[in-house]
Structures are given as structure tokens and as C-alpha cells.
Specification:
homotetramer, 490 residues, alpha+beta, Glutamine Phosphoribosylpyrophosphate, subunit 1, domain 1, Rossmann fold, 7-stranded antiparallel beta sheet, 6-stranded antiparallel beta sheet, 19 helices, globular
Chain lengths: 490, 490, 490, 490
């Protein structure tokens, strides 16, 4: 497979978080739309830090694109680059990485993907993951399609190319009816900006209004940055077409009960976004309240693991009455990996990002609130730092249930064996982390914090919670064939 | 004057904060000392983001140096560069900018400065500002010295070169007895690492121990990152010489009552540092407590202006009982300036960095806690964002007294006319910012938070608080001559 | 169409030479083949300076590729890049630019092109031009192929993808039977290196042997650089397959009388190459001899226009007895365009590259020997430089007939109207250039120098000489439709 | 000593040529003078390829400078850089490297050097070498001067700083009276452009006129590139001051018989320059004529070793009647070092630069004309290439006498032991190179070609020919002390 070297920014915690693979953003109907797309992608950077791309269309210059490794701020802020992306119709994409490539993405894998068809050009940007991509790719290649990337999302472009429908939106529907899995797709033709969500609505997608134009975005926080008005979410199963004629809506797929991803509330989405009608920050604060109710403990301080544990820690403090404090300080200039000078310094990686507020912690019983535990490697290091600084006791409170199953719908999860909760009970994990106590919020507690007062309805859950429950709403065909779920099958 | 173009990272708030001009760090007695210095400078990056430099000495390769514009993480993490800095004796410097140059620094102005003398080479890194530099420079040039930079700190190197003392430490004493103003200096000879603080101890400097070696640093947080033990502060007026023979201490200057900078507690130092025997975080939290006592107000939420207002906001919430909340979310990927697409979007600069948590703020009476008000430009924009998001009322509480006077001891302050508090009363400022209320902590309240229970002793204050009081402990000779203090002189 | 900005090196003479569009090079059966390909492409750099690409295959790492703008020496010499191209089977390509793009090539247009088929991957590198590419592209798109470049050569990859043959070599034959025009193609599968020339053999391609492996190259000079043995030319219409089993030869196309490009002898090929069994240097020297016979003139010095006029100038001097001299000195550090300081300096472009040897030229009658005249702009400037330096007379002798027709077989020629010889007689050109005399070698003289003692056989010429005669051996279908030959059609 | 990594371009022949260490160029009295300086330095690039620097002065912006590693064309062609060098008074320098540093120069060593004095700023650029620099440096340091580079030329700036004269030109005279060795210096004050040559006039320096302004340059070829008129050489021992008042001339040093460097005629200067009133090209052609008279041989072809052997080969052919031919072709895209693929390819370095014209050479007796033999390594490789290509015999004719002594006046020569001619007789060298014959032009022949019809006057030679004769016109004090001449002292 064609690949090339690229700079790779690695953060010490990167291997111990689930990572959203993508953010998408599109604007139609305002001049120099690509500049707005750059700003939108910047606000969505937390959804994908590896690379980004923007396509823009202009009647005079046609479709133009730019793809770059690295942060939006480091690439799409240069006038010399942005001038190559003229037009009032533009879409963009930030990505983390594909499941297939091992830490090395070719620039060809960076979306949006583009195809020149007899009906004109079309670009697409995809957030999610297709569970039948491998079978589709094989079939398309045997029929003469040439793939340029290792990305599953490229199938969509080839399916469009081979559709016999007479308009691009109809061809896109045709194509998306063939794929399985999770997708929030933004597409762009010469005159239209199109947004589609799969029938389950696993990944988010929202509609906004900016002056006379329209905006599609993974999250509302990216509408705020450009001053766009939040209109509504694109519904699960809905296709929205924005053009000079306004908005058209249709439902091209078979109806299904929505199952949006619950981990978006726990970690992926930014706290200032509104998701499913709820403040993400407030949901996280309420998880802290639930945790304090479910798993109280006597202590002197409640400290967040920055920054993602902060809202739940505030909630925990408010419910428990134990003072909230910044026991761990984050270095805001975190970046590339430094050369670690000698063996004598263990855990340098974590220290580059975090430092314990020693004077505060010394002699205290500390409750640490984190959003999730994936491999547990970071939790161990943080516990050590806190104890090294003289804490009397460390209690972990985790703002999500144990993460025990991989996600196949657009999230980068380690192999199941690497997930701490896949092989250990809560007590075994506590023992492994060597902490005074360790408690996860329950699935019911999490659902309550998300606004489902009655907790999780086992017969028909309101969210996709497969990473906690192992109940996959779409059967991951290719993945089962490839043995990714071996352990689960036992 | 020789100068060259350089990349310049500008943050939207940069013109509305006082900026520390420097951080210094040195290590002796451990292998590959420059790698430790890089880590230390990274932890001190908040003290100077414009450029950084490292010098290292090794018997085989002599003195080597590297100076770079930009963040430590982007330069001093490359093996190809670090390999050019071998040796077990190394010092480094991060800088913001000199008062002289207008947003444009030559790489020649980046410290450490180096001189090859008949007694061997010597490098120095200086945090502070010399108030008689201009007169010294004129005199030295007339006697045949050739200046390579526009930096005042270079005077020290030339004074060393012209001293008739027979050792480099004695020559350094000679040189520093000639200069006036504030200085925390780290110097390096082939076999010694030297730290000196001026007699008032305006800028901080601490001593640490790492294995068999010694460390000097502007702040303790940089000891933590490399796992060094914090031994003690270098005393005001003290010179410490670290070498294979251990530590020697002497007091080369005329004794004076110490006047360390109080703004280090308010804003400059990192919250996880220990300064003057106190936790910076805890001091800031206590300022919030003082503020809540001095200036209470009925409201629904206490929100920090991130990140520097956070500890005081926590203290204010704890004292007042009003819930603490993250009403403003900071984008952690902030970087270069984006191309602002159209006129229709005002305040893009602030939005790139901050976003209001709209769902939380709507309809609420909000207390915003910030560390200081300099020009007031940012405060206005934040207030607008909060009101746009639907807040019912906005109350500002400021964790420092009004900043009404420029600093001449190593801090970049705007001209006095640009300081909001230099021309307006508190009520005029409230009116200007268009907020429901605005209160600053009193000087006495600030001193109490800093541990002086009796408040400020007017006859003999424990700190340099010239930026608040206009009382300058060292007469800024050159500056008065140049009219910088015109207004103050009235 | 997708495009991106790129650095563009412009030479002052670039707009006044015909430019070969490509060089191709491939190696199989030796370790780290890509390093040899880099060297081969470096030796072929004169055939294309805009960009280069290399693909390499290795059983463990699959197909890997790198494409870069700029010289081979500036890109494919870095260990970090070459390490990404492991394997013992590799092909490469240097290119000038396509007729379609206006001085701006996307990196996607840089060959080799690659396709992943159900039969495995295949890369191709193409020297030449397809005269029916536009029609083919339209047809392929309508059937669902997605083009990634604006290059005509990409058609070949899609035709391979859609062929029903059961091996890649058979599919390549299938594909090449569909295309018209000139092609020397190198292709690479996992186990084979394939070379094909069109039935007329317009563009060159040679076979070499290196240790146990095989080499294909546009010219023999690139065999020399890696120490490979020159075996023979690939025959017009021949396909050669090199693999672990040795060499297989076949003739997949309808037989035709060969018509290799005569301009390769005049200018494109390097003088140290052997082409059609003849030394290119010797042919050029003989053109000078022919010129001296056909167009003698009394003069003091024979000077080449460096470097391409040198061999003919030597021949002219030897035949005429007039001393050969370096009247014009070339700056060997020629590169990017300098900022031209003021209006007062005309012709800076030429002066950057050439300088007149003033002391030598002064007062002399000078014969200038150049390889060709395209637009005549450079000839005028050189004449002015020579006269400014005090020459008594300037006589031009051109080592090719008047260039009056565009080439459609892989050479970048200006529109016909821009060719000086398309609109002027020899005498009009002499008048236009303001020189004492101007003579071109005759077509018969050129053929004689090329070894056809009887001159050009009008009924059945031994070479493609369409640029001089307007007789196109393959009808340029698309081009006539597009009006490129409007004038010719008159 | 302070140093830093830098890119280093190495050519395969670099270690087998003597290398001029510098070229200097200055312009006063024309707008945007730095652009002209960039062009002039480009024309002098053959005198130093490692690095270049330009200083420009403008009343508004003061003195500005830029120093860069690499070619002039790659650095001083960017508008963004050239805009930082405004003004109508500018000087520049290209350098090869200092004798002291081992293939690694710090950017601080790149000239021009600059000093800010009480009389105003002054920049200098120096071509040559000071034989008492080491002693001067020690003395200056002991008196408090701080050196910023490892370059000997920096002494001049410090001597200016310490002079008590009341004008900068007088201070420069003062300074230059203290130094020994060879120097052609260009200096620049705010209002003056100054050129000085040492009393022997070892290194060249010429004066030109451009519109209302003045130009100083190492060679006349750099006047041509900007269209400046060649006025005359700066005389040995002369100081010329160009300003708005025109030209002033003075002779500050003790008178001496001039001894300009004869190797400038042999190799250093460009063939299109006029040196000492003679065409460099014509002198080299005449050396070939002398060689053909002194050392005739029967052969089929006379071939130059490109490019420096070309004029002498033309002369040899003209005198001998043996046809001149390009037996060796040079790759004009020569650049960085490629990765050499395997052991099987010997001499790749040479092949990257040169290729034998095999078809021409085969079976022929070949006379190779080269400018000089230093270590002989390249000569051996070229001989092998020629024989590998099938030549019957190889005869070397060298256009200079045997190079047997190091140069201490600004030329980079290997240690004496490495000079082939220092340890071998002509016959031993012939045997070592394994060629049919080897002949060097005699010193008398060389003097005749340089216009001294009577040959070399042993009592009082017209040139410095120490590299051939070992007779040093200035005693190299430091070098003898350091043992550089050990062998010579025997």
C-alpha cells in the first residue's frame, strides 16, 4: 500500500484514551467559505489531531483542495494556502487515524475525498466507520475501480461513480444505502452542501445558519467560533441539502430507533457543545453528582485529572461537600516528545504534561476524578505522582462505566485484550492500580446523568453503549471475520 | 541595529496581560545536562514564549550554543540539535522580548550571552532588567567594546571582559556591582554553575539537587519536571557557586531589605510553584477568599476567566457559597492567527481562544474572576460574549489591585497611558467595561493572601508592588531620562 | 480540477527551448533498487526538471512511493526518504509538465501512477503523449472511473483496471492497444519490470544489465552512472519483461516502420548517450560539419551558445578552420530568479546565466552556433550581449532546421503562432534577430549527420521530424478537434 | 567555541582542488543596493560556496544584515529576505570555510562582520588571510574584547573599536596597519564604501561604476552581471573611499613590490574576468599553448577535464593540431551526495558529476588537460573512467606547475603531506597515477602565458607563486609556530 513518512505528534496520554477519529465541517453561501471551514475545523480539533483537509469550489477555479498533516492552526492559517481555496462552498475534515494503518497515514488518506464524475465533481468528508468496507472494496476493485487511499471512506466515492442515478444527491443516497456502520457524511457538489446521518445517528451532525448561508458541523461549539446560529441537529437517517434554494430534507434509509453514541457525552464532544438537546458540560457535572451518590468516600480534596475530568470533579465536590481543588496542573505548552535524559527519571512523559501541586496535596486524602480508564497506564502514573508528592490516600472515581469492548463505529480503541476492564473486575483493577479505592459510575447512573431518569432500558437502550455493554447495534461483519472480536465471541 | 525577520506567534490576549520577560535554568554535574535544561525551560515557557537558547560545555567540544525563535518543545526536542550540545554543565533562557525592540527580536538578542575571555569562556542568562543599561552601554562602546545585541543584559558580559579580577566568579561580582535594577542571573564557566540575585531579590531564583548535580531555576515547577529536589531559594543578594566541590555561598552586594515582586504571586509564576515559602496556587485561592469578603455580590455562578483566574474563582466560590462553574471554555489548540473571514464576525480573536458555555450561562447572574486588568480590552470582549450568550448580569472580580504603573524590573508593561487604571477610577472602569459591578482586591487584601496578616506596611512594604503603588524600590534612571515616567513625575 | 501551489524554478531560457516532458528509469533484481533509480533519474534530469517520483516494491512492505517537486538531487538523496522505499524492484520518473496545466502541476500529476488491482499492484511511468487521451478519459469517467490527476498517462492505469486479461502484462498490452500517440512506458508489478515502446518508437528506451538484475532507461547515460552494461535498445513495438526468470520479449502491436524522434539527436538526449546506435555527441559534431559546408562565412571565431551548441560549434570550427573559442561563459550556479534591482538593467535574466568573454570578443567577427531557434527571444538577447561587448559582426548558425510545427508526442512546444519559423522566412528571421547572417542546417544535412548518407527520404522518412516538416506520423485526433493545429490545417 | 549544525554541500571533487576562501562585493549610491550585491555575490559564487552574508545601511532602518549557509541563489533571491536589507549602501561576502574549523562553520563565522562604535556602525568583508591573527586575538581578548566568531577577520573589527582615530576610515587604516598577511577588504560606514588591498596585492579587488554609484568587487565578471562599468583595479596598498563626494584614493601602507596570486590566473578567477589587465580565459588558453610546446605527445584527441581544463585544452589542441573533443561530459544538475547503493559501484562520487563519452573515446589515444593536481585522487578516478571506456592511452597535461606548498593567504590547501607533488617527483606521480605520460607546465611557461615573456625572474618574481615555489612573500608567523610548515622547515 502506498504510504509516506510524516511528522507525528505524540502525547503521553495518547495511548490511554479512546480517540474520536474525525470531525467534519461545511459552509455554503458565504464568500471565502474555506476560511470559515478552517475556523470550524480548529474548533473541532479535539476530534482529530493528525491531519486535516479542506475542499472549496468556485465557478471560476473549480474544485481545489489542500490536505496537511498537523494542526489546523499550523496549516490553514497561511494566506498563501487559503488563497488557493476560493469559493463560497467548502467542506473540511480533521482526522485521527484509520484502524488499518499502524500509526502512519499517507497524505492520500486525508479527507475530504474527491471524484470528478460525468455529472461534475463531488467531495465527501466522513465521520464514522463502515463495517462492510472491506467487502465493498474487494468488489469495487474487481470491477475496475482504483483506490487511492487505505481509507474505508473512499468506497463511498467509488459507489457514487458507479451509480446510475442522474443527480449527485441521488447517487450519494444510492451509495450510502450500500454501506453499513456509522456515518455522518458531509458532501459537496458545485451548487450544494449535503449532510447525511446513518439511521441510528451514531455520530453527531448539526445544522447552523450564517448570514445567508448554511453550515454543517460535527458539534455546536464550531458554530459558536464563527458566530453561526445553531438551528437543529440533522436527524438520524436524514439527508439535508443546502443550496441557494434553502434547505431540503429527506429520509433515504429504512427507519430505525436512534442509538447515538453515549461516549460523545462522556469524553469526545467539547463541554461547550450541545448534544441531543443537552449541555455536554452539565451532563458531565451530573455524572460527578451520580458518582458522589453511588460511591461516596471520606477525603480532604476532590481533584480532577485535567482537563477532561474537571466537570465531573466539580459535580462530585458539590454533591459531597468535599472541597474542589486543582491538585494537578497541566502544562499548556505541551507538544512533541522531548529527549528523556536518563533512566533515573521515570514517567517523564506524564510529567511533561502534568505536574502535581505538591504544597496542596501533601498529607491529604485525595479523590481523583477522571473521565475513563482504557489501559490504565496513565492512571497508574498519576497515582504515583500524587503519592510521591506526599498524599495520604488516593481514591479514583471514574465518570464512565468500565470500557470493556472495542468500538467499530469510528473510534480508535485498542485491541480488546489491552482494555483493562476486559480482563479484570473492578476490585482487580483497584488492586492493579494500587489505590485506596476505585469506583466507576454505573451504566444506569450514566443514563440518568444523560437525562434518562429511569436509567438504561435494557430491552431498547436510548444510546449506543457497546464499548461498555458489548451490545453492538450494527453487526460488525468484517471485524468478526477478521477476529477482532475473538474474545467477545467466546 | 542589526535585526532580522522572524515568525511571531500572537495570541489574542497578548496585548492585555503583563508579560514576564524571562525564565532561566541551569544544570551542572549530570550527563547531557542540556536535555535537562530543555525540560526545565519547557516548564518555564510561561515566562517567555518568543525565543529560547541553551549553552552547554564539555571538555572535548568546548562551549556550544543554540538559539531559536518559538517554543522550546518545537526546537529543543530534536535529537539532531540536542546532540550539538554535549556536556554536564548547561544553562538556558526563555524570553519574551526586550523593551527596546518593537515586536521584532533578532536572534542575536536571544540569551544566553557568551564571551571567550583569557580566563576561559563564560555564558550568562539574565531574568530582570537593568535600569542603568543605557548609560553603561554608551560608556563601554566608547572604550572599544563591540555589542552584538540590542539587549541590556549584554552589558554584563562586557563588564566581565573588562574586569581585572583573576577568576570568573570575582569578575561576575565586579560586573554586577556596576549594574542597577533587577536581576536573577545564571552564569556558567567551564567548571562552575553560578546563580545570583540582586539585593532586593525582585525576580525569583531557586536551588535544586538532581542526583549528584545541582540545578538553578526561576521557579520550583521546573525542578519537578526533571525530578529534582527543591533545596531552597537563592537569597536576595546571594551568589551561589555550584561545582564538583559542592555549593559555595557569598553575599557580594550591599545588604538591603528584600522586595520580591508581588506580581509573581498574582500572575507570573505557575500555580504549582512554591514562591517565598508559599504555594502560589494557595495564595491565589486566598486572594479569591479575600475578594469574596471585601466585595461580595449576589449571583448564581462564579466563573473563572481561564486559566489564570481559576484558583481565585475557586476561593471566591468557597468563601461565598456561590457555585463554581466553567462558564468559559478554552480551546486547547490555540495557536497562530487565523484569517478572519469577514467583517460580520467581530471578536474572532477572543473566540479562537475562548467559547462561552451557552447552555450553562443563559439567564444566570455571573461573577467573572480574572487575575488582573491591564488595558481592559479583553475584559470588554469577554463581557460581551457572556451577555451575548444570555447571561442576566455580569460582575467582575479582579484578583489584583488596579495596575496603574509600568514595571522597569523585567516585565513588559504598556506605556502608562494605556493602563486603564492609570486614567480611571474603579467606577469609571466599571462604566467603561459596562458591567453590573467591578471590584479589585485591595493592596492590603493581597498582602494578607500572601501571608502578611497585617496587610501592607506602608513604611516598609514586604514586596515590590510598584505596578500597583507607583513606589519604585530602585530609581529607574534611564527611564526617567527617556520620559517613560512622564505622568508619574507629575 | 484539484491543484495546489508548488515552488517553481524558472530559468531565463526556459521559454525559448523545446522541452522533453519525461525521463523514465527502472531497476529489478538488485537490493535497494530505489537508490539506483534515484541515480538514474539524476542522470536523466535534463529530460524533466519540474518533479520526480519513485515507486518501490518489497514483499514485506508492499508498494511504497514518493513524489516531489524539484530536482532529484534535492529530494531523493535523503536517507529518511530513501528508507521509505525498500525493495529490489523500483521504477521512477522525472517530468517537465503537462500540456494541460499552465505552469502549475499538482503533486498528484507526478508519476509513477499506481493502481491496486485484484491481481495485485501495478505502477507505470510514461514518456510520451497520448493523442487520444481526452476521448479515453471521457469514456472511462462515464463508466465510473475516478481520475486523480490531470495527466493523460493516468488513462493507462484505468484501462489496466478494466481489462479482463488474467495477468498484469496482458492487461498492460490490452491497455496500450487502446491508446494512440507516442509512448515509452515502464511498468512494475510485484515480480516484474516491464518496458514497452509504441510501434513507431518515437521516444527512446534502452535495456541494461546490472549484476544479476536488469535496468530500463530512457537513455544510456543513465546506465553509465550506476555502472550498468548497455545491452540494447527496446525495439519499436516491443514489450520486454524482466524478472527473476530473465528477459522475455514480445511484439504486441501491429508492425509499423519506425519513426524515432530526430530532435532527440538535436537537443533532448545527453551528448554522452548512444541513440539508435550512434553517439549523440558525434551526430551533433557532424551537424556542425554539415553547417560549415552548407553555410560557410568568413569570421574570426566560432563560439557555441553554451552548453547545447558546443559539439556543433566544434564541428563547425574543424570543418571551417576558424578557431573555436568560449565567447560566452555560463554561470554554473544558476538557479532561482533574483530580484532584478532596477529598470536600468535590461536582460538580467540572460546575464544571470551567461556572461560574454569581453576581452576575447572585442572587435571580432563571431559565428554563434546554437542548437535551435524556438521563439527567438534568447537569440536576440545573446546577439545584443555580444555586440555590447564590442563584436564586429554576429553570424548565427543553427544546428537544426527551422522549428515550425508543434510536437504532440511528448514535447512541450509553444503554440504554433509563437514559433518564429512558423511565421517568418529565414531572411525575415535574420532581419528580426538583426544579425549579419542566419543559417539553419537543412533537413537533408541533418539526416546526413544522423547517418542517413542520402539525406531525407521524402516518401518514407527514417525519423519523426514533424516539428520541422509538419508531417505527423500519428494523426493527433484530440488536438485537431481542439484547434491546436488550426494554422496547420490551412 | 560556539558552533552549530548546518547543511553541508559536498562535491566529489571538493577535496581535490585548492579552494579560494572568499569573494567580496559592495555597492554605494544606487537604490536597493543589496539586490545588486546579491547579484554580484552570485557571480562570485565560485570563490566560496559554503555561506554568504549581506549588510545594508539605510538612514531610516540603520544597519541590517542577513547571513545564510548555502548558495546565494537559494537565499538572497527571496523578496521576504531582501526587503529586510533596505538602503543604497551595501556590502556582501561569500565564503568557503576557515582553516580552523573542520568542515563545520558557525553562522557567526559568516561575514560581513559588524561593529557599533561611538562613531557609528561599520561592517567589513575580508578576502584573504591574516598570518598574525592568532597573536592579535590573544592580545585583544586579554584587553577585554569579546570575539563572536572563530574567524581571523574579526580581529579587524576589534582593532577598529580600539583605535583612537576620530573617523572610521582612519580607524580602519590603523587596524590594517596592525595585521599581516593578505587582505582585500571592503568596509562600509553609514556614508562610505571603502576598499583596501594589502601592499602586495595578493588578492584581487576592482572598482566599477554603476549609474551614479560605485562598485567594489573581487572580480570583473561580477561587474558584468549588474551592467557596471569596469573602471580599474584597486592598486596594491591602496585605499579607495567611495561616497556621495565621489572617489578618494590613498596609500596607507609602506610601499612594496606587488606580488598578486598567480593561482587566480590558473584556477580561482572566472575565465570571463579581466585580471591584472589580462583576459583570464586567454591566459589559460596560452598555458595550453605553452604545454603543447613544452610537452608534445602523439595522440588522437585532446579532451579537457571539465570545466576548468577547457581553455588550456583548446590552446593545446590549437598548438598541437590534435582535435579538441568533449571526452568527458559534466552533469549540470550536480548537487548533494546521493546514497551510494552498493559496494559494487566504485567511484560513484565522480560518476555523479562526470560521465565519459564512451562512443568517442573507445580505442583512442587521449590527452587529458586539467588545471592542477592537488592530491591526485580525482586524476586517478578520471583516468580509470577513461580506460574503462576503452581508451588506448591516457596522457595527462596539467596547466600549472606541481602544487607542492600550502597557501597561507586565503586559500584552503591540504596539509603539505597530502599534496602529491610535495612527496613525489613528476615521474613518481606518473607512476602513481598509472598513465602513459604526465607533464606539468613549467613555472617559466606559466609566467610566459601570464604575459611575462622572459619567464619567472627568480630574484624578484612578479607574482606570489608560493604554492609552486615555497617562496612566501610574507612570513607566516602563526603557522610556523603551529608546525603547519614542519616539512618545509626541513
Amino acid at each position: 500500500m502506498l504510504s509516506q513518512t510524516k511528522p507525528f505528534l505524540s502525547h503521553p496520554f495518547d495511548d490511554d484514551k479512546l480517540k474520536e477519529e474525525c470531525g467534519v465541517f461545511g459552509v455554503i453561501g458565504v464568500q471565502d467559505a474555506a476560511n470559515f471551514v478552517a475556523l470550524g475545523l480548529h474548533a473541532l480539533q479535539h476530534r482529530g489531531q493528525e491531519a486535516g483537509g479542506i475542499v472549496a469550489y468556485d465557478a471560476e477555479h473549480g474544485f481545489n483542495s489542500a490536505r496537511r498533516f498537523g494542526y489546523v492552526r499550523d496549516n490553514f492559517t497561511k494566506a498563501s494556502l487559503m488563497e488557493t481555496l476560493p469559493g463560497s462552498n467548502s467542506i473540511g475534515h480533521v482526522r485521527y487515524s484509520t484502524s488499518g494503518s499502524k500509526g502512519q497515514t499517507a497524505i492520500r488518506d486525508v479527507q475530504p475525498f474527491f471524484g470528478e464524475f460525468s455529472l461534475g465533481g463531488c467531495a465527501i468528508a466522513h465521520n464514522g466507520n463502515l463495517t462492510n468496507a472491506e467487502s465493498l472494496r474487494k468488489e469495487l476493485i474487481s470491477r475496475g475501480s482504483i483506490f487511492q487511499s487505505s481509507s474505508d471512506s473512499e468506497c463511498i466515492i467509488h459507489l457514487i461513480a458507479r451509480s446510475y442515478q442522474s443527480t449527485l444527491p441521488e447517487r450519494l443516497k444510492d451509495a450510502l444505502r450500500r454501506v453499513e456502520g456509522a456515518f455522518s457524511v458531509i458532501a459537496q457538489t458545485r451548487t450544494k452542501l449535503i449532510g447525511v446521518r446513518d439511521a441510528l445517528g451514531v455520530r453527531p451532525l448539526v445544522l447552523g445558519k450564517l448570514a445567508d448561508g448554511w453550515v454543517l458541523s460535527s458539534e455546536t461549539c464550531a458554530l459558536d467560533i464563527i458566530g453561526a446560529e445553531f438551528i437543529r441537529e440533522v436527524e438520524p437517517g436524514e439527508m439535508i441539502i443546502a443550496s441557494a434554494n434553502g434547505i431540503e430534507s429527506s429520509y433515504p434509509f429504512e427507519k430505525a430507533k436512534p442509538r447515538p453514541c453515549i461516549f460523545e457525552h462522556v469524553y469526545f464532544s467539547r463541554p461547550d457543545s450541545i448534544l441531543g438537546g443537552q449541555s455536554v458540560y452539565e451532563t458531565r457535572r451530573r455524572i460527578g453528582v451520580e458518582l458522589a451518590k453511588e460511591a461516596p468516600v471520606e477525603a480532604d480534596l476532590v481533584c480532577p485529572v485535567p482537563d477532561s475530568g474537571t466537570p465531573a470533579a466539580i459535580g462530585f465536590s458539590q454533591e459531597s461537600g468535599i472541597p474542589y481543588a486543582m491538585g494537578i496542573i497541566r502544562n499548556q505548552y505541551m507538544g512533541r516528545t522531548f529527549i528523556e535524559p536518563t533512566e533515573q527519571i521515570r514517567n517523564m512523559g506524564v510529567r511533561l504534561k502534568l505536574n502535581v501541586n505538591r504544597a496542596l496535596i501533601k498529607g491529604k486524602r485525595v479523590i481523583l476524578v477522571d473521565d475513563s480508564v482504557v489501559r490504565g497506564t496513565t492512571s497508574r502514573k498519576i497515582k504515583e505522582m500524587i503519592l510521591d508528592a506526599g498524599a495520604a490516600e488516593v481514591h479514583f472515581r471514574i465518570a464512565s462505566p468500565p470500557t470493556a469492548w472495542p468500538c467499530f463505529y469510528g473510534v480508535d480503541t485498542p485491541q480488546r485484550e489491552k482494555l483493562l476492564a476486559a480482563t479484570m473486575s473492578e476490585e482487580e483493577m483497584r488492586h492493579h492500580l494500587e489505590v485506596a479505592s476505585l469506583k466507576f459510575v454505573t451504566l444506569d447512573g450514566l443514563y440518568r446523568a444523560c437525562g434518562v431518569e429511569t436509567g438504561r432500558d435494557k430491552a431498547s437502550p436510548a444510546y449506543c453503549d457497546a464499548c461498555f455493554s458489548g451490545e453492538y447495534p450494527v453487526k460488525p461483519v468484517d471485524q468478526i471475520e477478521n477476529g477482532f472480536l475473538m474474545k467477545a465471541a467466546e
